[in-house]
Structure to design on (517 residues):
């Protein structure tokens, strides 16, 4: 039980990071990015290819994150432009369609070019005992990275001027413009950051289990569930939801079986929609 | 300081205001009087970049700002306080004020000035803006606009939704700003208070400038008295 909770925590921190990007992009621009998971897999694939070519892991990871981020910026500044010109429901729908198209293209390309490629980062070293539970060093490193990045994000959005400016666009775009914030720049920055975070999650996942090129859709679905449970546009909500769902995930796979976990996660999302439609920390619109 | 010439603007290709010409000189307080739907808000939104301009130009301190992005106009020294205020509801009073100075860091002297002008805001620095009363939100909206140290402050109906006493307080604060040399441009339906504050005024009806003159002239104009001052 203790092991399941601890494993869930590790997984949940990564779920949180995965959800943060999606929730912020939606909060800022009303676009539910269905290519979120595909961008994550792009980062992992780049790392795998570069390491095959003999590059050290650190350099590979840096390049993988950079490629994902650049792709995010590119999508925002090209394909998303007509989307942002629309308002309300039309914006949401067009955003869904276009990002779904991007997801198909990326998935198709990866499966065509690198059908058997997967990334697994084997972190060496002994298993370490924490609270009487033996944890693999891969899990530990994944958690440390996730916690560190999570804390950095919270600090950035709470206390930095740029972070506050981005939150101001989520809360009242017109008000933000009136104080001198450029919402176009804020959206672009967050789209890029969101892709980097997605890439980071794929890379930290690969420290505990291999990430295949076909994993994009699973990442996207996970991110959607985290976003629904955490509340749209809430950074802290995404982390809370991630941790909660991570624990639900490991406990249900520990006691019932892995086949049931996705159903349990969807159930958590359904219950949230029923009893707390705005999510854990989301606000009503 | 601000020149508007031949400005037509509206929504969805339909003009609401037509060929508006007016100007505001540095240090002046100018009011735009008009009933609900006369086009005051459309005019203000077009000036500060929030609404589309069909024809005409807007010049601020000698530079054209016609159809410039809102954030650039705001950074150039023109602050606009809309009637709906557009505060950041889930941020504290302090964070709202801090963002007013974006992209720069808040200037301590300006912050002190704003908190002295609105002591209520100083008491409530940690309260979320969304939970404040209408009067306090209006103070915060003006305070946030002042944090950018603007040279022209535009206010759309600063007394909207306020009880008479609070409306008077709001205008008392604007009087302080005027005496310190702030240039003010105010759209208002509550004409008596605004007439006392301003130097000059324009009357807008059906999207066109109908009358103009000093506030004294307007206060004694029979049409204005009948339509806006409730005098038969």
């Amino acid at each position: 039980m203790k092991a399941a909770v601890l494993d869930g925590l590790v997984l949940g921190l990564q779920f949180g990071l995965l959800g943060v990007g999606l929730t912020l992009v939606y909060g800022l621009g009303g676009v539910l990015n269905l290519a979120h998971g595909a961008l994550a897999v792009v980062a992992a694939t780049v790392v795998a290819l570069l390491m095959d070519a003999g590059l050290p892991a650190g350099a590979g990871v840096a390049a993988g994150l950079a490629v994902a981020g650049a792709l995010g910026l590119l999508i925002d500044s090209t394909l998303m432009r007509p989307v942002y010109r629309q308002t309300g429901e039309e914006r949401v729908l067009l955003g869904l369609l276009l990002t779904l198209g991007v997801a198909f293209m990326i998935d198709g390309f990866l499966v065509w070019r690198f059908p058997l490629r997967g990334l697994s980062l084997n972190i060496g070293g002994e298993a370490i005992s924490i609270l009487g539970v033996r944890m693999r060093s891969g899990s530990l490193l994944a958690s440390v990275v996730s916690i560190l990045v999570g804390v950095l994000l919270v600090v950035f959005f709470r206390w930095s001027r740029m972070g506050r400016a981005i939150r101001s666009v989520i809360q009242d775009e017109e008000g933000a413009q009136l104080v001198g914030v450029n919402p176009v720049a804020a959206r672009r920055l967050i789209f890029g950051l969101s892709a980097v975070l997605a890439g980071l999650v794929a890379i930290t996942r690969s420290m505990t289990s291999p990430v295949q090129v076909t994993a994009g859709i699973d990442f996207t679905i996970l991110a959607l569930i985290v976003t629904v449970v955490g509340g749209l546009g809430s950074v802290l909500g995404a982390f809370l939801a991630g941790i909660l769902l991570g624990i639900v995930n490991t406990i249900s796979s520990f006691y019932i079986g892995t086949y049931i976990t996705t159903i349990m996660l969807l159930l958590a999302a359904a219950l949230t929609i029923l009893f707390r439609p705005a999510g854990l920390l989301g606000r009503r619109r | 300081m601000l020149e508007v010439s031949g400005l037509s603007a509206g929504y969805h290709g339909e003009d609401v205001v037509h060929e508006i010409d007016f100007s505001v000189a540095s240090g002046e307080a100018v009011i735009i009087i008009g009933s609900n739907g006369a086009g005051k808000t459309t005019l203000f939104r077009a000036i500060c970049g929030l609404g589309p301009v069909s024809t005409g130009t807007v010049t601020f301190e000698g530079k054209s700002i016609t159809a410039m992005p809102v954030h650039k106009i705001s950074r150039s020294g023109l602050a606009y306080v809309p009637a709906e205020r557009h505060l950041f509801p889930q941020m504290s009073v302090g964070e709202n004020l801090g963002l007013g100075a974006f992209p720069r860091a808040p200037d301590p002297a300006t912050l002190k000035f704003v908190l002295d002008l609105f002591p209520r805001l100083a008491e409530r620095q940690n309260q979320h803006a969304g939970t404040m009363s209408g009067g306090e939100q209006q103070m915060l909206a003006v305070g946030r606009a002042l944090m950018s140290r603007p040279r022209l402050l535009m206010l759309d109906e600063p007394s909207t939704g306020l009880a008479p006493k609070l409306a008077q307080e709001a205008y008392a604060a604007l009087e302080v700003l005027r005496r310190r040399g702030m240039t003010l441009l105010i759209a208002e339906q509550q004409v008596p208070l605004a007439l006392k504050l301003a130097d000059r005024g324009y009357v807008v009806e059906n999207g066109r400038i109908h009358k103009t003159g000093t506030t004294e002239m307007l206060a004694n104009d029979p049409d204005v008295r009948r339509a806006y001052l409730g005098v038969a």
Chain A has twelve helices and four strands.
